[in-house]
Amino acid sequence: MSEEQRHPRALTIAGSDSSAGAGIQADLKTFAALEVYGLSAITAITAQNTLGVRAAFELPPELVEAQIDAVLEDIGADAAKTGMLATAPIIEAVARSVARWQLRLVVDPVMAAKSGDPLLRPEAVAALRGVLLPLAEVVTPNLPEAEMLTGRHIETLEEMREAARAIHDLGARHVVVKGGHRLDAPIDVYFDGTGFSELRAERIETRHTHGTGCTFSAAIAAFLARGLAVAEAVAEAKRYVTEAIRHAPGLGHGHGPTEHFWQWKQSKEAQTR
Ligand SMILES: Nc1ncnc2c1ncn2[C@@H]1O[C@H](COP(=O)(O)OP(=O)(O)O)[C@@H](O)[C@H]1O
Ligand SMILES: Cc1ncc(COP(=O)(O)OP(=O)(O)O)c(N)n1
After folding, report:
1. Pyridoxamine kinase/Phosphomethylpyrimidine kinase domain: which residues (predicted)?
2. What is the CATH classification number for the domain harbouring 71?
3. What is the pLDDT of residues 40-59, one digit of tens each?
4. How far apart are CA 204 and CA 272, in angstroms?
């Protein structure tokens, strides 16, 4: 097998964030840091910084589909992830592509930025639930997104487990309900359709958490592309995002980006020594 054939590759289908802390830019940085070749299909262009989203322009669904076809016909992807999908027609176009290309898909059901600015039209939530989630190998809602998907209030770990089960019932095969929005430790709940486990980490006291959800889901896709099983990929991605937050460079006047190039490889090697 040639070098080119063995190199893992992953596709992100997401919006562009001009501040490069979230969206396509965060995903590609994560793929690169984890030594996975990154491909992209852009769904929308946002003008945003660490303080908020100033403008957004949604691309035509046919152009999103054309980007996916162009890279998959030529290069192919071992795994893919979605982020900001903006509209129901884009979600439907992405679902058609995922089914046609039989993609191993991680869905980050992005609905709003940390600043509160909306990134998904309200009427598109039904398409996310009904059309895309049934195609997801993994879905990674944060607490407000899990509330929107289930129609339940979620606060406690037990309520996170109930929400994970309800989202699994919508068709996603593995569910991670993220706990970054909890008041105490950022514990995430993982459900594989049979059992629950918790992904635990210390809370890092910082305002620099822009794009943490994008980074987490991109890392899951990268580890899947590298051949890890889902439970392992999710656990490694949790370690990755925790270190990305810890090493945040402290940029901007609001919620700044996390860091991707703090020598992940060496820190992994040190861990296993
Ligand atoms: N301050 C923090 N310290 C450590 N981990 C965090 C912190 N904030 C978020 N996380 C983790 O980052 C990941 C992304 O979660 P979250 O911030 O809830 O997503 P989103 O960006 O979609 O709102 C989760 O694994 C969460 O537990
Ligand atoms: C273009 C774009 N996509 C997604 C987001 C939201 O990303 P997320 O990782 O959920 O991070 P926060 O914005 O919640 O920190 C975005 N802002 N822009």
Report:
1. 17-258
2. 3.40.1190.20
3. 999 999 999 999 999 999 99
4. 23
